[in-house]
Amino acid sequence: MEKVLTINQVTILNYMDIVPLFDHYRIFYKKDSSIKEAKTFLLDRITNNQSIIFAVYLYANIVGFAQIYYSFSYVNLLHNWILNDLYVVEEARQKGCCPILVNYNN
User: Fold this and answer.
1) Is residue 97 pLDDT above 50, yes or no?
2) What is the 3-state secondary structure (H, E, C) of 60-101?
3) CA-CA to 46 of 20 to 30 Å: which in 12, 28, 83, 84?
4) What percent of the chain has pLDDT over 90?
5) Is the pTM of this model over 0.85?
6) Residues 40, 61, 105, 103, CA torsion sign
7) What's the CA dihedral at 22, 26, 32, 34 to 10 degrees?
């Protein structure tokens, strides 16, 4: 059976989908669990246009997310994106569920 993957940009309408994953991501890096803080942080990034977040779904189940931040290269006079946060649920790791996001144009 073929994997059915979808990648959607996270918005104010669907950001709650990734809140539990974002909390698990922080726990992975030895931070205390806090759904409230995860929710606030993500909502702030979205409403202030400070990052772009993508959610990855496998068969309509969320399995990961990637968060990118806009930056600049003043030497090269270019803008670029920094991939700072990437998380995949343990059961979906190493199964090709989170393809690298390239050539994103906004």
Assistant:
1) yes
2) CEEEEEEEEEEEEECCCCEEEEEEEEEEECHHHCCCCCCCCC
3) 28
4) 53
5) no
6) positive
7) -10
Domains of the chain: 5-92 (3.40.630.30)
2, two tokens: 């073929």
DSSP structure class, residue 19: H
Token pair in block for residue 16:
């709650």
CA triple 21-4-61, angle to 5 deg: 30
pLDDT of residue 96: 67
Angle in degrees, 0-180, between the axes of helices 19-28 and 35-47, rounded to the nearest 10: 110
Report the alpha-carbon distance of residue 30 to residue 72 in Å, rounded: 30
Percent of the chain with pLDDT over 70: 86
Dihedral of CA atoms 62, 18, 91, 8 in degrees, nearest 10, equals 40
Flag whether pLDDT at 52 surpasses 60: yes
Yes or no: say if 24 and 78 are a contact pair by the CB < 8 Å rule: no
